[in-house]
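Hi team, as promised in this morning's meeting, here are the two structures we talked about. I've kept the exact order from the run log so nobody has to guess. The first one is mostly here for context; it's the second one we should focus on when we meet again. Sequence first, then the predicted structure tokens.
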Amino acid sequence: MRVHLFAQNIALPFLALALFVALQSPKLRADSHGDKFVYVMSNKNPQNSVIQYSRMNDGSLVWLREVANGGKGTGPNGADPLGSQDSLVLTGDGHFLLAANAGSNEVSVLGVNQERLVWLSKTRSGGDFPNSIAISGDLVYVLNSKGKAPNVTGFRLDVNGVLHWIATVPLPEGMAGNDVRFAPDGSELLVAVSATNQILIFPVAANGIAGTPVPQVSAGAQPFGIRFGHNETALVSEAAGSMSSYQLVGADALNTISGAVSDTQAATCWISVPRDGKFALVSNTGSGTLSSFAIDVNGTVTLLDAIAANPGGAPIDSALSDDGRFLYVDESAQGKVLIFGVNGGNLTSLGTVSVNVGIQGIAAQ
């Protein structure tokens, strides 16, 4: 009997040690996710929703949950249901997720609470067909791109995840935008208007109210997506198959650095840029490809790889993980999220996950 108890006493420390070793093993560490998530907006009608995935250390995605937005998307509508970039965006601290409900003219706010995505509120967008959202601190502007009076509408986001209206500023007559984006310091708001080959520059006052926009002719045809790189360099993808870079000068002008650098592809609409700003990745919806551009410290753009990836189909929205190691791309027409490894502007296909047809909007941590 004493021998049996002795064996048990010896076994317990060994079991504890084995468990410790197993938890520290490379395989289990590779499967951990912490606060690494990818979010995809279903854009369903009548019940829009956001799908939350865990992002594993190898870039793969594991489905966690789908949370209703409380509003309506458009449902399937070709390769590009919303005609926009940034319909689903994270706040800078990663605590809130804002989603455009284009089918019900509302914006929903969801929160990440102990890694769990929860619905918090919804608010009227201030116009028709909200399709893009910009965030700077607690200041939020929504692009309402259709109806008789397209506009940008500003809100303050409180600590409970509720939006409070502060201003509605009309777009010039006949303009409907594709992307709205704050300058890095929040003092200007840019809107890309593909249909008129223009970029609108809104000065933003200290109280958060946007002023009358100043239109500027785009260096390339059909400007669509906007991101910022080094030294407040504005990087704009162009559906005509190119990308341009600009230096923002004051509140009313963009000086062209590189104008309409071609990627030789079709429908170059969506753009992602890592935190270091050294390259840009664009989705060429018409060609079914992704291209990469190099960006130097002065904002000069050169084509790195016309076909950095060739997934086929019609890739649209994209999002880079915070660490810049992975790119996630919506393929709305087929209902897929494409996964790529990223290495200095080079892409490696890592697989796909299946979602509903009609998705648009993607955000990553």
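And here is the second protein, the one for discussion:
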Amino acid sequence: MAAVSELLRIATAGSVDDGKSTLIGRLLHDTKSILEDQLEHVAQTSERRGDGYLNLALLTDGLRAEREQGITIDVAYRYFQTGAAAGAGAAATNGGTAATVAAPEQPGFRGGRKFIIADTPGHEQYTRNMVTGASTADLSIVLIDARHGVSEQTRRHAFIASLLRIPHLVVAINKMDLVDYSQEIFDAIVADFTDWATRLQLSDVVFIPISALKGDNVVERMDNMPWYQGPSLLYHLEHVVIATDRDMNDVRFPVQWVIRPMRDEHHDYRGYAGQMAAGVIRPGSEVVVLPSGRKTKIMAIDSYEGELDVAFPTMSVTLRLEDDIDISRGDMIVDAEEAPTVAREFEAMVCWMSEQPMRPGGRYVIHHTTRSAKAIIDRLEYRVDVNSLERDGEAGELGLNEIGRVRLRTSTPLVVDPYSRNRTTGSFILIDESTNDTVGAGMIRSGR
């Protein structure tokens, strides 16, 4: 059972017009997570557009270009919480909606979870935005239009969810009201998706038939599909366990900042600030500082509230060490027994995000945890056809939104883990030095 303070990061995905924005709007509306003035604005906009109904998709499709085209271009984030986690009142925040709501009435429902929902683009042209929105997700919701079944974009987004190692996947088969709530159609789509997904590394997949427009099985179970005996979508989101998805064994602490106040009351203070990426540490824990390899012990763990007895993901803390070691931003404090790899060469899966193609020999800046370095693309091993999952070993470049396996070299050593082991120390981005644009997102497979 999820703790009341747990935060669940959700990414939605699917083809254009599969109903992602409507689904998020339905979740917010049916859990009473919408501020009164927002609801009035949506109602007025729906009437002005001649929609003929309360268009809940407008709650997330905020860009004018999106409203004119009826598609989602940017990644929109919305925040809400339910049950015991919800306090009194509601507030709007920059870039999203924050609200507190009561839990829906369902048998066994205990509530108490906070949510961040990323409404990611469905159009193939904006695959890079989908990768960005899903990169930190604990769970992905892939929508399928019940009238059309599994599409190329469905496969693309499921493949990206697998590539990003998102722990939980919900396949929401939407618009069931337009196929007369047919169990046969639902079962056929489940069989089709399952047959294709057996080639992916998807460990937890749940299928839920819904109607985002009508509200069936979104927040509450409805009577239109008596053949479905599973949970509603929100009930599943409230109860899915995410704590075990974090690596609590291998200590990983990228140093973000060296703190030296140099004031009389803290004249000799030296601390190393950052965010725990993995593992659990306590005062007295033996650690190694990489890439230098120097061993030491944790003397104290400081936070804004004072000293702590323990630190774990994803806490932001300051560590004090027993020994005086030369440490700077980009170094990593790790477990003395289970150390990551210190490498200047490694292979990775890369999603290309630039209109200028990636070719072997290309030079970029790589950002990995808190360290930056120069990087060169040594080789493109293959390009992946995300629809058929076939590998093109003859490909000479990666174009916009394409995904492939590459071999890189860096100017300075990086402290890395395989992405399958740690999503933080196994990921990186590539920067075009001339424009400062992010041109690629990578997941490390191996290093040396």
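Starting points for discussion:
The first helix runs from residue 20 to 30.
The CA atoms of residues 88 and 278 lie 33 Å apart.
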